[in-house]
Design brief:
alpha+beta, elongated
């Protein structure tokens, strides 16, 4: 069990190890809050690769590695993240008026529901 010091080397070696033997590979993540230490380990019972860091710089890289390994383990492609909505610039003024709700038509746009006053006791 030797710690790999370079992130790029670890990531490439971990993905190659999983692709070589997907049925026996195991991936372990350990976080020690007291020390602020992150330890990653992947093994296939013959080869063991470990990476250790205390730097928060590696969190995005760690997330990318997890996503990559999970995609391979589930044999699925990642769904594209929804971006900002695309504007259709070919709207006409008539289409815009048809999509605009009419004020006071349903009571929804009037600000909510009135609270009932409590009844007075005799």
């Amino acid at each position: 069990m030797v710690y790999i010091s370079s992130w790029q080397e670890y990531q490439e070696a971990a993905e190659a190890l999983y692709e070589k033997s997907p049925n026996t590979a195991r991936y372990c993540v350990k976080w020690r809050a007291a020390d602020g230490k992150l330890v990653l380990k992947i093994t296939d019972n013959t080869t063991c690769l470990k990476f250790k860091t205390t730097s928060s710089v590696f969190l995005n890289r760690f997330e990318a590695l997890n996503l990559s390994l999970m995609q391979k383990m589930t044999n699925r492609q990642a769904k594209p993240k929804p971006g900002p909505p695309q504007l259709d610039i070919q709207h006409t003024a008539e289409q815009d008026r048809a999509a605009t709700p009419v004020q006071g038509a349903s009571g929804i746009s009037s600000g909510g529901v009135k609270k009932k006053k409590p009844k007075k006791k005799k």
